[in-house]
Amino acid sequence: xxxxxxxxxxxxxxxxxxxxxxxxxxxxxxxxxxxxxxxxxxxxxxxxxxxxxxxxxxxxxxxxxxxxxxxxxxxxxxxxxxxxxxxxxxxxxxxxxxxxxxxxxxxxxxxxxxxxxxxxxxxxxxxxxxxxxxxxxxxxxxxxxxxxxxxxxxxxxxxxxxxxxxxxxxxxxxxxxxxxxxxxxxxxxxxxxxxxxxxxxxxxxxxxxxxxxxxxxxxxxxxxxxxxxxxxxxxxxxxxxxxxxxxxxxxxxxxxxxxxxxxxxxxxxxxxxxxxxxxxxxxxxxxxxxxxxxxxxxxxxxxxxxxxxxxxxxxxxxxxxxxxxxxxxxxxxxxxxxxxxxxxxxxxxxxxxxxxxxxxxxxxxxxxxxxxxxxxxxxxxxxxxxxxxxxxx
Length: 393
Known about the structure:
Oligomer: single chain
CATH topology: TIM Barrel
């Protein structure tokens, strides 16, 4: 049975797409996407924190023509949100990262590709003409890091993003409980679950291309077979990444550069001082250190500390258009979404991602009209306040 476009169209919000993704995916795949570290306090906080803020509208404003355009990384985007790098999209749908990139391109927004993607730098470059960012780690093999930089330059990527919050892998207990493996394997313990999801399982057998596409040609990295994500992290990435590494990579790249995974004003100032053009305020979707603050709760303090010269992106917990507006009003230049589009991908492939972005775009446009802000630049601190009845999660 193919994925149902009717069911996707019946999804009225990101929460509905998550529910449909849950129905479509075997347990291990869904909980890998949906889960987080330890007690998942941060995972819950990322979304709940938005509820602590109130939007303060101004009326009698001409909002007949609401414009969602913004600029980030020197690129003009048609939306104030873009797509975060997420690993191994093939786990959720056989159309994988290519489907996501095509939708981002059609919406005129930026697509970010993960180092541990199941589509390569070159495949994404060939598939879309729009702005692209490559997410990178510092590898033990400096030559491999340099290779990623050069390939990104050769493929026309507009920006580079260094993820810094993975000195070791987080303790994701849902993955352990449900027996997550990469590539997925039929075993005695999961065969019934796989059979309950015939569409996904049939595609597993028809398209068994579960590989880290950006390193598949490097036999010194993957050996004779497919390397698992944890093996890749443990064998290829250095655990002691420092500011010196980040500055070296900024100079090696020589263009728009984001550091992803910072939460404090002190770290944001350091990023600014070494030449980063942007900071993605992020806790890795709650998948690394549990009990960290929600990114949206950090943005105002960081903005006050760094001024207007450093671009700030809120990465984490975006589920509604009003979440986007709150982040912008608190001082973000843009937001990035991860799980929101992955729910769409798992719900219906490229069509599901299209639905996810359409819902968010419509919510942002409607929210801007109701807020009295005809352009993104009109959204400011006067449009948001901490709720007097808020309870910190």
